[in-house]
Structures are given as C-alpha cells and as structure tokens.
Design brief:
Elements lengths: L1 H21 L8 H30 L3 H5 L9 H11 L8 H8 L3 E2 L2 E2 L12 H16 L3 H16 L3 H4 L2 H6 L4 H27 L10 E2 L5 E2 L19 H8 L2
Antiparallel strand pairs: 1-2, 3-4
Helix pairs in contact: 1-2, 2-4, 4-6, 6-10, 7-10
The structure holds zinc ion.
The site of zinc ion has 8 residues, from α8.
Length: about 250
C-alpha cells in the first residue's frame, strides 16, 4: 500500500508543479498551447490520482481499523487512511504510546520537541512526520471531533501564551508577542498527538492486544481527564500496571 501511496503523492506533486509552471506569466507558451497542455496532461494526471485513490479504497476494505473506525473519522479520507495504515501498522511494533510518538516525530525530549540533530541518527520517520502534519491540517479543516478538539486546545494556548516569555519561542521573542502561527501549530500538534493515542488504542483492541490503563492527558496543572476516541468503545485492561510517570511528564511537556 505504501508504494501506491508514494506514487499518488509523486503524481500529485508533478501535477501541482506543472500547473504552477503552465500558468506562470513567462512560461513562453501561447494561450492556446497552455489550454491544450492543461486539458491533456493535467487531466491525465488527475485521472491517475483518482485511479490510485480507487485502488486505495479497495485495499482499505480489508483493513479492520479502516472499516471499524477510521472511515467514520472526519478529516480522514482514503489517502490519509492509507498513510496511517501503511506507516503505523503493524501496531505491535509499538509496545507503548511513547514509542509510537517517537517514531512519528511527536516525542518530547527533555521538555522539547524532538528535532533533527546534525550528525545524529534520526529517531523518527521524517516522511511520516510530514504526512501527519497534513493530517493535522485536514483535521482543522474538517467539522468533526478533532476540529473541536483543536478549538479546545487552541483556547488553552491562547489563554496560556500571552507573551514570548510564556511560550519560550525565539521567533515569538523577535516579534515581541506569541504569534498566532505558534499557537496554531502547538494546538494542531497536540490534536495529532491525541489522535495517535487513539489510533494506538483502537488498533490494539482490534487485534486483541491489551490496551493499558489509560494515562491521563494533562492540559493544565489542575484539570486532568482522558479523551476517549470518537465512535469507538475501548475496553481498557486494568490488570496491567500503570504507565510510568515519565510518560505523563512527556505528555505535559508537548
Ligand atoms: Zn509563541
């Protein structure tokens, strides 16, 4: 499925590049030639994307997590569904949520977002990280559960980060205020993190694997609560030990 997906994104990239090039003022093409190319080439590429999407839809029919959950999550269509399944399965690879976050580029190390370090081996999959960024965008544009969650997260950051001292960002410091873009990105990141927790829990349960006692998602020092995945009833395995407190710290430090 990943090959299908990469082909899809390749074609999409070519189409967008070609589209931009064709309509650039100095493309050197006559108007008639532009129209001709647009009709022929762009149509062909678009059609290929659609065909690939149909293939993806067919492949997804055999994926329990798609059938039982993802297909009903607003903001996730066949392309993003294929992204998730091809990168996150088999979920058994991630014995804990923090391992899944780390692989996805959503870990916090010493209270900071993990970034690429020069000369060091990368601990996450950069392609997946980019695709999850797209997923976050899609959630924000959707009218579903994760959009609502984004609004809640955003409201908290808006209240919490008034000055660059509050958020600690060097960029915000230069502008003398915490930028909208910073709070937007932070809230979106948190939504994707919560979604990954949900994915992990749902996928494990569908495979009959134990889902550990839920840790608490912590937004502030005073209020704690768990957000269950939308449209899926998780049966938690309370027989297992609680997750280490280190994980709670990580979540707090998003
Ligand atoms: Zn900021």
């Amino acid at each position: 499925m990943r090959g299908l997906l990469e082909t899809y994104y390749d074609i999409q990239r070519i189409r967008i590049a070609l589209n931009n090039q064709l309509f650039a003022k100095n493309s050197g093409l006559s108007e008639q030639a532009q129209v001709h190319l647009k009709e022929k080439v762009l149509h062909f590429l678009l059609q290929s994307e659609k065909n690939l999407q149909s293939f993806m839809k067919v492949s997804l029919r055999y994926e329990p997590i798609w059938k039982e959950w993802l297909k009903d999550v607003k903001g996730i269509g066949p392309v993003l569904g294929s992204v998730l399944i091809s990168y996150l399965e088999p979920i058994e690879r991630f014995s804990t949520i923090s391992k899944l976050w780390r692989y996805s580029g959503y870990a916090c190390i010493d209270g900071k977002i993990e970034r690429r370090q020069k000369g060091e081996k990368l601990h996450y999959n950069p392609r997946l990280k980019t695709l999850l960024w797209l997923l976050g965008e899609s959630f924000v544009k959707s009218k579903g559960f994760y959009r609502e969650l984004y609004e809640q997260m955003r409201a908290k950051y808006d209240a919490k980060w008034k000055t660059p001292e509050d958020c600690g960002s060097a960029v915000c410091k230069r502008f003398g205020k915490c930028l909208d873009a910073h709070r937007y990105a932070a809230a979106k990141r948190k939504v994707v993190k919560v979604f990954l927790v949900h994915y992990w829990m749902v996928s494990r349960q569908l495979k009959g694997l134990p889902v550990e006692k839920p840790y608490i998602l912590q937004y502030s020092d005073k209020h704690t609560h768990l957000i269950p995945p939308p449209g899926f009833d998780i049966k938690f395995d309370y027989g297992r030990p609680e997750l280490p407190s280190e994980l709670e710290r990580l979540i707090e430090a998003v």
